[in-house]
Amino acid sequence: MSTQKASRIGEEIWKTRIDKVNAELVTLTYGTIVAQLCQDYDSNYQEVNKQLDKMGYNIGMRLIEDFLAKSGVGRCANFRETADMIAKVGFKIFLNVAPTVTNWTSDNNQFSLIFDDNPLADFVELPDDGRAQDELWFSNILCGVLRGALEMVQMQIEAHFVSDVLRGDDTTEMRVSLVRYIEDEMPPEDD
Amino acid sequence: MAAPPRHSTMLSISNAGTSQSTGTDRTQVPQSSSPAQTSGLRVPSNRKTIYDRHLNRSRNAELSRASFAYLFGEMVTYAQRRVTGIQDLEKRKDTPSASVCSTYSSTAPPPPPPPLSPAPPPPRLPPNRPLRILSLLHLIHGPLWRLLFQRAADALEHSVSAETPNEYMITDNDPLVNTYISVPREMSMLNCAAFVAGIIEGVCDGCGFEAKVSAHNQPTEMWPSRTVFLVRFGESVMEREKVLERAGVK
Amino acid sequence: MLHPDWLLDPRLDSPRDELASCFPVAFQLARTVFSLIIINKAGGLIYQREFQAGLRKLSTNDYLVLAGTFHGVHAITRSITPKLPLASNTSPAVSSPGANTPTTGYSYPNPGTPASGLESLETEKFRLTCFQTLTGTKFLLFTDPTSGTVDTVMNKVYELYADYVMKNPFYQLEMPVRCEAFDRHLGAWLRGRT
């Protein structure tokens, strides 16, 4: 499936099949979660990153069902197709953005998502405490979401942010690597 | 929450005589309203910051209801986890669910504490801030509800009891936050819309109306998740209300 | 997709056809849905419900056994899916010791789609349709065999599950589904109300 086709599918689902809410409700809810974590973990930002990732993982394991039910797409033929599905369908129908897929490694197992827009970070400025801009990945929940969602469709991946405009970087970039395809309960092929 | 007392400005209007409180307010204003100038934060060279985009850019923007549901669900789970972990908090409450509720309320009021989001206060309310209780409640019942949930609340009532003139009720027949949630039977006291109660409380406080807001299940056959938000204004608010009444302020 | 006996079935007289044609699709389909079973990844029964009054019920234990057995049979049907020799493999019948890397030499009839396992099972009296999601959860619908495809019902059931089960923070993954809102919406939709 081509990137263009994935984009069309994403657009179509977003327009016709998605219940919407005010974007600010989502943004502020997420902001509240991060703020609460920063408070509860005493601005230990490494810990906050970890908690956000964990929350995202929990979300991902549930969100994948909605993704599959709404999109009706089948299994991807390869990891490149998976990347397009994530960027053009997944992010589109849940966050109304379609990050760019780029920087593939030659083995096709690693790529980057570049976010032009990030609704989770609207209104946000990191704390001016000399550490947050070096330590906190504000949108880290998204890494967990991808990890959780893909694990449920038998892909073990690793995801982390490498840059964020909130930190003063010029782009917001997430790096996604395929670790392995998880064998399902299918008996091993023997013949 | 460590947020500065946002109702202090209001006090300066209602009790114009006490110049002291006004003085302290003024000194607070510059440091909270202009973080950009004093900030040591790095900004992207393309200046993609909150100060460089239109304030209302996302006002009419939409996101999926599912995304909200997942985030809200995680908040509920997180609050539950914290509550069982913090035993002394639990002891002070009658039921675990009550403490979950109060945790939400303390978690809830947007905007989040200053450092992370000093930008606009969430409900971009009309320029004229309400001075009287009724205009405040109409604002919450109508514009705030529409902003957050795309429709007005279903009812706004005043307590009929002479003993509790400070109690008001806002009813939502089908709170958006509860759309996908089924509370287990053993926790039937819990209403996750306590989150919304927190928002209402935050808005009241932000407008200078000290209030306690709680969420209560009032299901009907037609509206199984019907919720009543009980707003109880503080004594200072009630007294001010009397003064404003006499002064003919609307 | 129609049952072979459909055209000859004396029960399908014209009044019923007329009746059916005046109701929305969901309603027609709903009339024919007997029950729903949901089986988790490990083969455990997590949901069972009838949609018509007065159906004779099995015991809870029987349902658990049914779910586990179906899960096993489903896995077997996947593993016995016939595999064809790859086109490039010119002489598959002749096995040479050098070509002893069998898994690369064979493929499913339609290599693009993985083997699915049992999708439907039909008797004179009912049809069982199984839909396994990519995450491994199975939805089993028991329907009237004279009705057409149940795709619409199945998709809607999956969507309701994604909404009212998976978005409920009080639902623990892989555990029995006790979500009042799911029951309510499923019932309402199958009755053709929403």
UniProtKB/TrEMBL annotation, chain A:
Q: Which Pfam families match?
A: TRAPP (PF04051)
| One GO term (biological process) | macroautophagy
Q: Which domain of life is it from?
A: Eukaryota
Q: Which SUPFAM superfamilies match?
A: Ligand-binding domain in the NO signalling and Golgi transport
Gene Ontology annotations for the cellular component aspect, listed alphabetically: endoplasmic reticulum; Golgi apparatus; TRAPP complex
The entry's localization annotation reads: Endoplasmic reticulum; Golgi apparatus, cis-Golgi network
Q: Main site of residence? A: endoplasmic reticulum
Q: Where are the transmembrane segments?
A: none
User: What keywords are assigned to this protein?
Assistant: Endoplasmic reticulum, ER-Golgi transport, Golgi apparatus, Transport
Please name the InterPro entries in this protein's record: Bet3, NO_sig/Golgi_transp_ligand-bd, TRAPP_component
Instruction: Give the family, as the similarity comment puts it.
Output: Belongs to the TRAPP small subunits family. BET3 subfamily.
UniProt protein name = Trafficking protein particle complex subunit BET3
The taxonomy runs: Eukaryota, Fungi, Dikarya, Ascomycota, Pezizomycotina
UniProtKB/TrEMBL annotation, chain B:
**Region spans: Disordered:** 1-54, 87-125
Q: Which UniProt keywords apply?
A: Endoplasmic reticulum, ER-Golgi transport, Golgi apparatus, Transport
| GO process annotations (BP) | endoplasmic reticulum to Golgi vesicle-mediated transport
Q: Which ranges does the record mark as transmembrane?
A: none
Might you report a single GO cellular component term? TRAPPII protein complex
Q: What main location does UniProt list?
A: endoplasmic reticulum
**Compartments reported by the entry:** Endoplasmic reticulum; Golgi apparatus, cis-Golgi network
What superkingdom heads the lineage? Answer: Eukaryota
Q: Which InterPro entries match?
A: NO_sig/Golgi_transp_ligand-bd, TRAPP-I_su5, TRAPP_component
Q: Where is the composition biased (Polar residues)?
A: 9-40, 96-107
User: Pro residues composition bias: which ranges?
Assistant: 108-125
The family line of this record is: Belongs to the TRAPP small subunits family. BET3 subfamily.
Biological function = Plays a key role in the late stages of endoplasmic reticulum to Golgi traffic.
Quaternary context = Part of the multisubunit TRAPP (transport protein particle) complex.
In Swiss-Prot or TrEMBL terms, this protein is called Trafficking protein particle complex subunit
Organism name: Penicillium chermesinum
Automatic annotation (TrEMBL), chain C:
**What SMART domains is this protein classified in?**
Sybindin
Residue ranges of coiled coil: none
For bias type Polar residues, the affected ranges are 87-107
Q: Which SUPFAM superfamilies does this UniProt record tie to the protein?
A: SNARE-like
Q: Which InterPro entries match?
A: Longin-like_dom_sf (IPR011012), TRAPPC (IPR007233)
For the region Disordered, give the residue spans. Answer: 87-109
Q: What is its main location?
A: endoplasmic reticulum
GO biological processes: endoplasmic reticulum to Golgi vesicle-mediated transport
- Family, as annotated: Belongs to the TRAPP small subunits family. TRAPPC4 subfamily.
Instruction: Relate the assembly described in the record.
Output: Part of the multisubunit transport protein particle (TRAPP) complex.
What is this protein's name? Trafficking protein particle complex subunit
